[in-house]
Amino acid sequence: MQVDWNNLWPKISEALVETLTMVGFSLVFALFIGFPLGIALVVTRKGNLLENTVVFTILNAIINVFRSVPFIILMVAIIPLTRLIVGTSIGTAAAIVPLVFYSGPYIARLVEQSLLEVDPGVIEAAEAMGATPWQIIFTILLPEALASIVLGITIAIIGLVGASAMAGAVGGGGLGDLAIAYGYQRFETVIMFVTVVLLIILVQGFQSLGNILSRKIRRR
Q: What is the Rg, in whole angstroms, of the alpha carbon atoms belonging to the chain?
């Protein structure tokens, strides 16, 4: 079958923009959720700055629940909530809602892991000097873990790229939707190949950028 590239390139460009839109907005909203959750998981655990077993147990359980649900199932399960928030369950805007719920808890775990890597001796020294818990969090804990957090967020972005492609299976738009509509349903393998290459380029680009930023932060 002859591929009509003149008509197809605008569709590919539109799908790429939709994918970047989903990833960009989802990441921003997910950071607003995941970053505070990750910090809370660390500071409220036993023996830490703001120890609170109840809060830690509840947050830990909620995050585990969301992380246990595969994205494609989560996307379908929260359709009523998606409709309530954006007024529809189809399209790029609708895909952002489940992407946020999927990536927010994931980012929380990545931030938690990065903060736990900080040398406890540095925190103890700050406490000995009379620093408050909030001062330690924002002037010691976060700056010390920043390079690791950047790498963690990079991993989250790559996960979002993959999840945004899966969103195309249920009408989420983007490169995944293009691959299914043309590459799979119309058996146009060239289209499938192009979408795969574009996704690989996106992943490689985000990973390289994350690595560069992390290295620069570590050298400071």
A: 20
> What letter does residue 89 receive in the DSSP assignment?
S
Other beta carbons within 10 angstroms of residue 55's beta carbon come to: 15
Going from N- to C-terminal start, the domains of the chain cover: 5-219
DSSP single-letter state for residue 185? T
What pTM value is reported for the model?
0.86
Q: What is the fold of 5-219?
A: MetI-like fold (1.10.3720)
**pLDDT in the model for residue 3:** 58
Q: Which tokens is 86 given?
A: 């954006």
Residue 2 banded pLDDT, cuts 50, 70, 90: low
For residues 63 and 109, the answer to whether their CB atoms sit within 8 Å is yes
Q: Residues 11-40, buried b or exposed e (16+ Cβ, 10 A)?
A: ebeebbebbebbbebbbebbbebbbebbbb
Residue type, 48: N
Dig out the tokens for 197 from the structure: 């290459």
In a 13 Å sphere around the CA of 26, the CA atoms on its Cβ side amount to 33
Mean pLDDT over each residue of the chain, to the nearest integer: 85
Q: Are 33 and 104 in contact (CB under 8 A)?
A: yes
Q: State yes or no: pLDDT of 1 exceeds 60.
A: no
Question: How much is the average pLDDT of 167-189?
Answer: 71
Our CA angle for 96, 100, 103, nearest 5°, is: 130
